[in-house]
Automatic annotation (TrEMBL):
Keyword Cytoplasm carried by entry: yes
Listed CDD domains: CARD
Amino acid composition bias (Polar residues), ranges on this chain: 1-23
Domain (CARD): residue spans on this chain: 27-110
UniProt keyword annotations, A-Z: Cytoplasm, Immunity, Inflammatory response, Innate immunity
Region (Disordered): 1-25
Protein name as catalogued: CARD domain-containing protein
C-alpha cells in the first residue's frame, strides 16, 4: 500500500488565478455528488487528514462507524466542509495524492463541459 506523504505545502495546490474560491472548497462544491459515488479507499485520506490535524480521533471514528461507504463519504465531506476552506484544501490534497486519476477525471469534466454528458 502506497504511503501518502501528507505534506502541508501551500504550493502543492495550485489556486486558479481568476477565482476567489480556494481549490479544495471549489472542488468539493462542484464534485460532491461524484465524490459520494466514486471515491475509492477512504483510509488513506482519513489518515492524512488525521495527520494534518484536520480530523480528531473521535471524528475519524465517527466516519468509519457509518453503516455504508456512501454514508462514510457523506459524513467526511460534511465534516470537512463545516471546518472551512483550509480543511477543504487539505482534503483536496489528500484526495489528489490518494486517487490522482479520480481528481484528474473530475477536473477534466469541469474544464470540458461538452464531455460531461458523454
Amino acid at each position: 500500500m502506497k504511503r501518502l506523504s501528507c505534506v502541508s505545502t501551500p504550493s502543492s495546490v495550485p489556486h486558479p488565478a481568476n477565482t476567489s474560491i480556494p481549490t479544495g472548497q471549489g472542488f468539493i462544491n462542484k464534485h460532491r455528488m461524484d465524490l459520494e459515488m466514486r471515491l475509492g479507499l477512504l483510509q488513506p485520506i482519513l489518515m492524512c487528514l488525521h495527520h494534518q490535524r484536520v480530523l480528531k480521533d473521535q471524528e475519524r471514528e465517527e466516519v468509519v462507524s457509518q453503516p455504508t461507504k456512501t454514508k462514510q463519504i457523506q459524513t467526511l465531506l460534511d465534516m470537512v466542509v463545516k471546518k472551512g476552506a483550509r480543511a477543504q484544501d487539505h482534503f483536496y490534497r489528500a484526495l489528489k495524492e490518494a486517487d490522482p486519476y479520480l481528481v484528474e477525471d473530475l477536473e477534466e469534466k469541469t474544464s470540458c463541459p461538452e464531455q460531461a454528458g458523454v
